[in-house]
Amino acid sequence: MLTLNYPCLEVGRDINASASQVWDLITDTACWPQWGPSVRAVDCADRYIRQGSRGRVQTSVGLWVAFQITEYQRERYWAWRVGGLRGTGHRVEPLCESRSRLIFEVPVLASPYALVCKLALTRIRSLAERDVSREGKLADRSDNSKDPDSTSG
Questions:
Q1: For residue 17, is pLDDT > 50?
Q2: What is the pLDDT of residues 31-89, one digit of tens each?
Q3: Domain 2-139: which CATH class?
Q4: Is 119 helix (H, G, I), strand (E, B) or coil?
Q5: CA-CA distance, 91 to 102, in Å (whole number)?
Q6: Could you tell me which residues come within 8 angstroms of residue 153 by beta carbon, excluding any fewer than 6 positions away?
Q7: Which residue, 120, 96, 132, 140, is CA-closest to 21?
Q8: What interhelical angle do 19-27 and 114-144 show, nearest 10?
Q9: What is the pTM of this model?
């Protein structure tokens, strides 16, 4: 999904995971290098970002750049300034209990960065859906390990 919503270009993808699971991935600074193609490392006092969180990211070329979370709506939206410039916005929309849509808002002047965001969306989808699959397998294993002959009481 690619949409022009001036002053931003929106790049999005539907994900087979709850909005809460996707939100956890995109707000956990320990996960950013796993899904962010332009992020090699993160230095932030807050593992999970919140309004006003500050830190720095190491870019894929090795430079450290300061950031600050400038907008934050829990489980819905966050945006930041990176190197003093307006960066991407990150919006999560629940579609149903186990499916959501993640949308990156890229400033039009930085529109080539939409390609980086497309790759990030693919990685986030893979991470989120892998976690959902793993949780399902653990639940199945737990259900199968119950002794059908045992009774309580």
A1: yes
A2: 999 999 999 999 999 999 999 999 999 999 999 999 999 999 999 999 999 999 999 99
A3: alpha beta
A4: helix
A5: 6
A6: none
A7: 132
A8: 120
A9: 0.85
